[in-house]
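Lab notebook, bench 4. Still working through the backlog of constructs that have no structural model yet. Next entry is a single chain of 131 residues. Request: give me the structure tokens for it.
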Amino acid sequence: MEITVTSGVEATLLEEADRAHPLECCGLLLGRDATITAAQPVSNVHPDPSCHFELDPAALIAAHRAARTGGPQVIGYYHSHPNGLARPSATDQAAASGDGRVWAIVARGAVTWWRDGPQGFEALPTRVVPG
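Model written out:
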């Protein structure tokens, strides 16, 4: 399955990772079906944000409520690896739920896209479109 992402979303992810460095940034990927049209930055509330992330639960709940009333769907999540690689870490693997959501990981000026599947993370083919 291929996902479509706007160039503006990728730009937001890169900007957020730069802004948060040397800490991890995190947020929500919003859109419809397999198209991600917005990235919503969310506070990283993990006690050790230098190498972990935890989305602010209030922001996540608010996004799901907005989706139920016609707003964009929560397609997945993003976070950065300030000193690492743009692929799921052992910590990411341990935190994954296998729910099929999309994860974007930002590291060293690159964004990679993954599906959190029942068998673990799978790289996602991605088409970037203007926007």
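Notes after review: Residues 7-20 form the longest helix (14 residues). The beta strands are 3-6, 26-32, 35-42, 73-80, 102-107, 110-117, 120-123, 126-129. Flag for follow-up if needed.
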